[in-house]
Write a structure and sequence with these properties.
Blueprint (H helix, E strand, L loop, with lengths): L1 E6 L4 H11 L5 H5 L2 H21 L9 H15 L11 H12 L1 H8 L10 H5 L2 H5 L7 H6 L7 E8 L2 E8 L3 H4 L11 E7 L6 E2 L2 E5 H13 L8 E7 L1 H8 L17 H13 L8 E5 L5 H22 L4
Amino acid sequence: MSQLVLCCDNPNHMRDSQQILHLNGFTDEEKERYKTPILRNLLDAMSQLLKACEDLHIVHEHLLQNCVDDFHEFYRNVDTADAEKEVTIPPDMCKKLQRLWKSSSVQMAYQRRWRFYLLDSAKYFLDAIVRITDKSYMPEIQDILQCRFPTKGTEEIQFNYENMSFTMIDVGGQRSERRKWIHVFDKINMMLFVAALSDYDLTDPENGSQNRLLANRYIFRTLVQSSFFRNAAIVLFFNKIDTFQEKLNNSPLVKHMTEYTGQNTVEECSKYLGNQFRACVKEKHKFFMFCTTATDTRNIEFMFGSALTHIINENLRATGSY
């Protein structure tokens, strides 16, 4: 059985995609576990938008201020609660969330979303407020793929692909989780490293003085140059290519990486960033890079299949069988 290790950014997107593609999706019990993270994503997104209104000096309508105050009080109680504790949003708060989301002030902040950090799935969940706050709500596949939450510890899934058996080990991307990685770095055949291209203009949440994408590059370099991956294929998935394309129009790459001299196009910018990661790998023939959107399972299946084909061919060449 081949072992794959999945590292960094928001790896649960990739892991969930494999479960949907190769393990017949999720049981109702597994879907239930996503309800609270999804509701937290919804509340986090509104909190980020309201903070942006303050930072960007966007004034709310006078009649809306009570909704803003009530949300802040509700959010403080949820935010300080145990992260594992079930979250429910009562009907009155649901109506206030709808009113806030439709307001001119919050929409103005959303239009300026490139100027502050906002969950990529913010619009997706805010557009679905009524559906996902309903008492009978059961997360749909796309809800699960859009949901963002940190991996705690390590999680494994086993699946078959093209008559081959795989174990995928998902490790947490947060700094507090990285010390646990070494326990799973044994006999790994492939490392799948996921980094969001759209992070090029963000700061690292764990180190405000560092660029978020370059912080991921540092982690990537540390891993690929370690002895644990001496014989492993290295696959870099540049995620969120769609958000990256949208962002470039409002926030040029050169503004955040002054050494960049190319055109402000998706092709040239992604190639430049890919070369920054590729330079970390000593044996270039073991490195493969793909740009993708982790919420598109069909795209993930194609990319994963392409990566495996490359790796199998390389192994055959190495043994003289190709």
